Give the backbone structure.
Amino acid sequence: MPTLSKNEPSTQIEPDAQAEIPDLPGDRSLEDLKHRLVKTYDDKAKHYDTDRAVNDATRYYFANSYRTIESVMDQPRRDSVHVDMPVGTGKFLLHLRQRGYTHRMIGVDIAAGMLGVCADESEESGAELNLSMGDAYRLPLPDNCVDIFTCLRLTHLLPKSTWPQIIAEIRRVLRPGGQLIIEMRNMMRGVTCQMLVSAFRSRRETHPHTFVSPPEASKLFAAWSDVRMQGMGLDGTSTLSRILPPVSKGLHLLEALSPVRYLSKTLLVQARKPKSSC
Ligand SMILES: C[S@@+](CC[C@H](N)C(=O)[O-])C[C@H]1O[C@@H](n2cnc3c(N)ncnc32)[C@H](O)[C@@H]1O
C-alpha cells in the first residue's frame, strides 16, 4: 500500500496510478460492470460537465448540493487530508478551492478520461489537487490517513450487495474520528421517476441505477458514530429559489430536519469512524 507523501499538492495524476487497475479475483460480473463504467465515463468525460448542466434545475441542484456538503463538512486544518472519490471532473474539489479552502485534496477515480479532464480544469483554474486512478473497492491509500472523505454519486452505479465492501474500504482509510459524507440516490423519488419518466428508464439500460431508502442507509452505517442523514434536491426548489427564495430556504431546512427527505433526489449521509477503532 503506498504511503502519503508530505509533498505539496500538485495537479498531476500520480504516474504509478496510471497503470491498468487489476481485476479483483472472484466476482466476474462486478469486474465486467467496472470495465463498462470505465468505458462509459472515458467516452463521456470531455462533454460530461456541459451535458449534465442541461437546465436551470440541474445547475441549481449541483450548486445547492455543493453548498450543503460544504456546510456539513468538518472544518479542515491546513494539514487535513481530504479524499473525494469518485472525483469525476473534480467539480466539488474545485468548488472548495474557489471558496478558499487550502487543505490537501486528493481526487480518486477509476476512469482515466475523467481524471484527465479534472487535471486540465484544475490546471486552468490554478487549483492544486492530487489525482490518483483507483477503484472504490481497493483504494490506493494506506490505513487511517484521511480526515475527510467525500463520496458523491457513486453508489447508484454499483450493486447494492457490494456497498458494504466500499464502505468498509472507506472506513479503512479514514482516521479514527474522520468524517465520511456520502451522497446516494434516494429510493422513493428514484422509483417514482422511473415509473413516470421514460428517459429515466432508458438510462437504466446504459448502467444500473440502484437506490437507497433512509432505513437501508441507517443499517449500512450502524457501526459508525454521529450518523446523520438529510435529503438533497427536492423537485421544484430551483424554480422557488428564483421566485420565492425564502420558501426554497425553508424547504432546504425541511429536507435536513424532517421526513421530507424521503422525497428528495438524493440522501446525504454523514458518519464518523468511531474514535475507538483502528
Ligand atoms: C456520476 S459520476 C460522479 C462524479 C463526481 N463524484 C460528481 O459528483 O460529479 C460517477 C463517477 O464514478 C466513477 N467510478 C465508477 N466506478 C468506480 C469505481 N469502482 N471506483 C472509482 N470510481 C468509479 C466514474 O468514473 C465517474 O467519474
